[in-house]
Design a protein that fits this description.
Helix content: 25-40%
CATH superfamily of the largest domain: Glycosidases
Strand order of the largest sheet: 1-2-3-4-5-6-9-10
CATH topology of the largest domain: TIM Barrel
Number of helices: 10
CATH architecture of the largest domain: Alpha-Beta Barrel
Bound molecules: beta-L-fucopyranose
Number of domains: 2
Radius of gyration: 25 Å
Structural class: alpha/beta
Strand content: 25-35%
Oligomer: single chain
Distance between the termini: 80 Å
Shape: globular
């Protein structure tokens, strides 16, 4: 027969079990590091290595380190170009699947230290991290778990130790890492000791955000969008359920500047994405509440090709042009009530909150005269969770409110694009929210090329 103490223990365990099963979507909140990362919105990932010299995407680990011999590496040029595109941080592929290290790792000779570049004395992780920071960008690292060169790879235990030591070198020598990329490619069926890997990383980099695809969900802070096409094609909820385990895992969407190519290839100008393709990528990733991770690749001289530099700047200019003239501010719209001002002040550091406990609210603006616009940008304040489940954007026309957008999920940022409309009164109608909504920004824009304004 059970004693009362046992009964009490059983009851406590049961209530824990029930609590674990009754996690609510709206109770899950981001960490401060996650919201800070989401505010960055756009980063670049840089691929450079033996593949650059061998016209390859996936090296098989047999390349002679002597092929790596760029004549004029210019990491400042990389970072300036990334910045001109609007990126806030850069992730360097320190080791891709071929196992070639861009820093002088003490764990292997397979890397820059066996190459003729800088007589084997170079350290690209150092150069890239210094240049990133000098240009106002944060810095992160990709270290491929799949290693096609390292002989220890065949022995999971020995390789885990090897990987951990490489990770130590990177996590302790190059300053704060904003993001750490764990790529699942090539690793299907392989079990790594991720418990130890993440513990090690956290010891030295407690604030780094770990990116990984959903298979590594448990260890990651961020999740992969599921495609490299540069779009989030579904409603973007930051909370994801992995078999009863709800967690805040914001989306990152990685896509290369050149179609299908992460590394540089000779005569590859035709794969360079056009400005309008890149603007679509931006609208469909950042404008869909996710992070854009754009792949850029230096050529075999160690510089980004001039055409790529030009395209990155054109892309940045196009986004600045599209989203710097907020009509609500420029055309002096007034809110329906003074407290709504925090939602329309063009300042994402301030936010407006709907009445406590409410499940529906509106943010309304009136212009002195009718304005024409074709897109709205809305930002939800997420520190307390993602609350807005259904909303419309409406214009007042012919004596009634008429929806021009009907959608779900706002999240970090939502850009809604529609045929140009002209109106004097506009409102964001939050039809259904879990608890009160919080809005950082409600902005309206006109794409001049689209006949607006
Ligand atoms: C993928 C890799 O296999 C590609 O080569 C590239 O590094 C991309 C960013 O991630 O999984």
């Amino acid at each position: 027969m059970k004693t009362p103490v046992h009964c009490l223990l059983a009851a406590t365990l049961l209530s824990f079990a029930i609590a674990a099963h009754t996690q609510n979507f709206s109770d899950i909140k981001p960490s401060p590091q996650q919201t800070a990362w989401q505010d960055l919105e756009f980063g670049v990932i840089i691929h450079f290595g033996t593949n650059t010299f061998l016209n390859r995407e996936w090296g098989d680990g047999t390349a002679d380190p002597k092929v790596f011999n760029p004549s004029s590496v210019d990491t400042d040029q990389w970072m300036k170009a990334a910045k001109s595109a609007g990126a806030k941080y850069a992730v360097l592929v320190a080791k891709h699947h071929d196992g070639f290290d861009l820093w002088p790792s003490a764990q292997t000779d397979y890397g820059v230290k066996s190459s003729p570049w800088m007589n084997g004395k170079g350290d690209l992780v150092r150069m890239a991290s210094d240049s990133a920071r000098a240009n106002g960008l944060k810095f992160g690292i990709y270290l491929s778990p799949w290693d096609r060169h390292e002989p220890k790879y065949k022995d999971p235990k020995a390789y885990d130790e090897f990987y951990l030591k490489q990770l130590d070198e990177l996590a302790t020598s190059y300053g704060n890492l904003v993001e750490f990329w764990l790529d699942g490619a090539g690793s299907a069926g392989r079990k790594y000791d991720f418990e130890s890997i993440i513990n090690e990383l956290r010891t030295y980099q407690p604030n780094t955000m770990v990116f990984a695809d959903v298979a590594l969900f448990k260890y990651a802070d961020l999740r992969w969008v599921g495609t490299e096409s540069g779009a989030i094609s579904y409603e973007n909820w930051n909370v994801i359920d992995r078999t009863g385990y709800l967690r805040w895992r914001p989306i990152e969407a990685d896509t290369p500047l050149h179609k299908l190519h992460w590394f540089w290839h000779p005569n590859d100008e035709s794969t360079l994405k056009s400005v309008s393709e890149l603007v679509d990528v931006y609208n469909n990733t950042v404008g869909h509440g996710g992070q854009l991770m754009l792949g850029i690749a230096p050529d075999n001289t160690g510089r980004l090709p001039e055409a790529d530099v030009k395209r990155l700047k054109e892309f940045g200019d196009a986004i600045r042009q599209l989203y710097s003239h907020n009509l609500i501010v420029d055309e002096h719209a007034k809110p329906a009530s003074p407290d709504e001002y925090a939602a329309i002040d063009n300042d994402p550091a301030t936010f407006w909150s709907a009445p406590v406990g409410s499940n529906h609210a509106t943010v309304e603006v009136t212009f002195p005269k009718p304005v024409t616009f074709d897109r709205a940008l809305t930002m939800e304040w997420l520190n307390d969770g993602q609350h807005i489940q259904k909303y419309t954007i409406e214009i007042y026309k012919d004596g009634a409110w008429q929806p021009i957008v009907e959608a779900q999920a706002i999240g970090h940022k939502k850009i809604d694009i529609f045929p140009p409309v002209t109106a004097q009164r506009v409102r964001l109608n939050l039809l259904s929210t879990v608890g009160e909504a919080h809005i950082r920004e409600f902005r309206l824009f006109a794409d001049n090329a689209n006949g607006g304004r």
